[in-house]
Each structure stands twice: as C-alpha cells, then as structure tokens.
C-alpha cells in the first residue's frame, strides 16, 4: 500500500492546469504525489487516466487518489466501476467532508471547468483532514463493497 503521505492523481486535458496547481499544493504540504498524467493540455481520453488512478486505489496500492476532468462526471463514472473504490465528485466543502465522514470516499473527483484553484485547495484539504466516522456507516460501506 502507498505510504500514508502518498496520493495518486490523474486528469484529462480539461483539468490539466488545475491538476498541476493541486499537485504543487500537495507537495508543498509534504505529500508525495504520484502523477499518472496527463502531461499537457492536448486532448486525451479521460477513461485512460481514470482507470490508472482507480485501479491503483482498488488494488490497495494507494489509500487515496484524486481525479479531475472538465466536469468530474466522467472520471467519477469510471472510478466507481472499480471494486472498493468510493469516488466522490464534490464542488462544495460540506460534500467533501461528508463524503469522508459517511462514505469513506477514497477518491476525490473535481471538475476543472467547474471550480477554481482556491476552492479546489479547500476541498482537497477538507477531504484529506476528515476521517471516516465508522459506526452505522461501516455497514453501508460493506454493503457497497459486496
């Protein structure tokens, strides 16, 4: 499994600039960021990058990942096809927090054409700082995984 301070990140062309800003933000906070691409603004198939991140989280190579595309919709659809992945598409702090507290989300999905970098940083930090509550929510997570 990835170290506790490591996170895998991937995006398509529509969110490349925001991914680069988030990557720097995380590195400045001491995170080891494994970037699986894309590496520029040229058009790519988001599915390829969604599979890389979701596959690594599904296999337990990383406990957390971040995916970005234009709206976040495509990446969230791809990621949630993988076993044991609970990808949460969020654009507000309350949803970022509750995705962890109630759903133990392990992939944060953001829309690069929906949110700006300041909000993105706040969403990422909230998501990383928030712990899963467990309790009655654990049974629901187990039901999802089964």
Distance between the first and last residues' Cα: 21 Å
Task: Specify the biggest β-sheet.
Answer: 5 strands, parallel
Q: Count the helices. How many?
A: 6
Outline type: globular
What is the chain-wise order of helices and strands?
EHEHEHEHEHH
- Architecture per CATH nomenclature, i.e. the level-2 architecture: 3-Layer(aba) Sandwich
How would you write the strand order of the largest sheet? 2-1-3-5-4
SS-based class: alpha/beta
In short:
This protein has one domain: 3-Layer(aba) Sandwich (Ribose 5-phosphate Isomerase B, Chain: A). Helices cover 45% and strands 16% of the residues. The protein has helices at residues 16-28, 46-58, 73-79, 93-101, 117-129, 136-145; strands at residues 6-11, 32-35, 65-69, 87-89, 107-111.
Explain what you see:
There is one protein chain. The chain is of the alpha/beta class and 146 residues long. The chain has a single domain, classed as 3-Layer(aba) Sandwich (Ribose 5-phosphate Isomerase B, Chain: A). 45% of the residues lie in helices and 16% in strands. The chain has 6 helices and 5 strands; from the N terminus they run βαβαβαβαβαα. It has a 5-stranded parallel beta sheet, with helices on both faces. Helix 1 crosses helix 5, helix 2 crosses helix 3 and helix 4 runs parallel beside helix 5. The protein is globular, with a radius of gyration of 14 Å.
């Amino acid at each position: 499994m990835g170290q506790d301070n490591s996170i895998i990140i991937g995006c398509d062309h529509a969110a490349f600039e925001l991914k680069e800003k988030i990557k720097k933000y995380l590195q400045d906070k001491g995170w080891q960021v494994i970037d699986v691409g894309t590496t520029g603004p040229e058009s790519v198939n988001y599915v390829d990058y969604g599979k890389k991140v979701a596959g690594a989280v599904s296999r337990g190579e990383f406990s957390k990942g971040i995916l970005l595309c234009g709206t976040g919709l495509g990446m969230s659809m791809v990621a949630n096809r993988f076993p044991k992945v609970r990808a949460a598409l969020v654009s507000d702090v309350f949803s970022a927090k509750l995705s962890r507290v109630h759903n133990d989300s392990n992939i944060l999905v953001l829309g690069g054409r929906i949110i700006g970098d300041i909000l993105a940083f706040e969403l990422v930090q909230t998501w990383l700082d928030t712990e899963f509550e467990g309790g009655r929510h654990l049974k629901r997570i187990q039901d999802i995984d089964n």
